[in-house]
Amino acid sequence: MIKRCFLISIIFLANAAGSFASDDEELVNNIFMLIYNQQFPEAEMILQTHNDKLEKSSFYFLTLDLNWWKFILSPSEMSSRQYNTLLKTIKSEKNIAAEDNINRLIWLSYQMRFELKRYNFFATAVLHSEIKKVLGEINENGAEYKEGKMKLFRLYTALFKYYDNILNPFFQESKRRARAEALNEIESLAIENSRVVSTLANYFLGKIYLDYEKKPAEGNRHYKILVEKYPHNRLFREMLAMSGK
Q: pTM of the prediction?
């Protein structure tokens, strides 16, 4: 269960890594803020009204993320069948092609989250391999991406490093040092000016300190930051309360 929960978190970051710090950054940030404040109708209205001003990768991410939150928190508005249909519709678009790694990564990531939610572990394993391959190709071409996107890849790399050094039970001291290095990197990204980067870093730090490091007070510190930024987010408030016990 721990492995599954952390994997979902990693996938969430992979989704975001392809989407932000581009020419449409301000618009993306505004919609992102509405989504994370659970102001779904407002976010949906702006997304539909200004979709022509968004890069395709940003539009795919925000559409899938908005409806994912609705699927998780408001299933009456977005059922499993509806979300699956949305995934199929986006996959059918010509922009989701093998050579378009950013758009492909976004779709693969959300498809994998969906299969995990349905406990379809065979499909999850296949998608995991595809995502790993795409991420490797993106990392090889890192110089092509803007600074903001590379910060998100730094965050992804640090999270993967932390996760990898939890699972392996051997060489405990070296694993502890590796986890500490990863945490320091994530902490540095939590104070970045980018709304997306800092939000994700604080979220993952809260999860790590609460669930893995067993330091709820540290987790509580990061959840407080998130609740201050997104006071209407029910999940963040619940995690703040949980870490404050």
A: 0.77
